[in-house]
Amino acid sequence: MQIQVLKSKIHRVKVTEANLNYIGSISIDLDLMEAANIIEHEKVQIVNMNNGERFETYVITGKRGSGTICLNGPAARKVQVDDIVIVISYATMDFEEAKKFKPTIVFPNGHNKVK
Fold first, then answer.
1. pTM of the prediction?
2. What are the structural domains, with CATH classification, of the chain?
3. What are the two backbone dihedrals, phi and then psi, of residue 12, each rounded to the nearest 5 degrees?
4. Measuring CA to CA, which residue among 29, 12, 23, 8 is closest to residue 75?
5. What is the SS3 assignment for the chain?
6. Of 15, 21, 24, 8, which is closest to residue 56 (Cα–Cα)?
7. Cβ neighbours, 10 Å, residue 108
8. Residue 89 CB neighbours (<10 A)
9. 39 neighbors 89 (Cβ within 8 angstroms)
10. Using an 8 Å Cβ cutoff, are 32 and 13 in contact?
11. What would the pLDDT profile of 41-94 be if each residue is shown by its tens digit?
12. Where in the sequence numbering do the catalytic residues fall?
């Protein structure tokens, strides 16, 4: 049996940009991506702490060290700059493997930097 489990989470990061006129996705600072074990083009769920929105998109790499969290395309309508969001990715794995798996969780500081 295969199940989906939490793989990675960037917990409570601040939206720095919302760009409606760009190809859809979320741009994330490469430092945050690496710390959270998230790769470019990976599917993620975004949870907006300010308005309760939950939606899915995919990741594109943002400039390393920039603190960038930019929602692009239609996702830009789901956030405001300075909203606090959680970025979550999941993995599908065997049930027994999932019992032993430990997700990667990152708690950035107030400037979207890895602690």
1. 0.96
2. 2-94 (2.40.40.20)
3. 60, 75
4. 23
5. CEEEEEEEEEEEEECCEEECCCCCEEEEEHHHHHHHCCCCCCEEEEEECCCCCEEEEEEEEECCCCCCEEEEHHHHHHCCCCCEEEEEEEEEEEHHHHHHCCCEEECCCCCCCCC
6. 24
7. 21
8. 20
9. no
10. yes
11. 999 999 999 999 999 999 999 999 999 999 999 999 999 999 999 999 999 999
12. 25, 58
Question: What CA–CA distance (Å, rounded) separates 18 from 77?
Answer: 8
Q: What is the Cα–Cα distance from 10 to 46, expressed in whole angstroms?
A: 10
Distance CA(92)–CA(108), nearest Å, equals: 26
> Nearest 5°: phi and psi at 110?
-65, -10
Closest to 37 (Cα-Cα) out of 110, 111, 74, 90:
90
Phi then psi dihedrals of residue 77, to 5 deg: -75, -15
What is the residue whose two structure tokens read 């990715």? 89
Structure tokens at 96: 């027994």
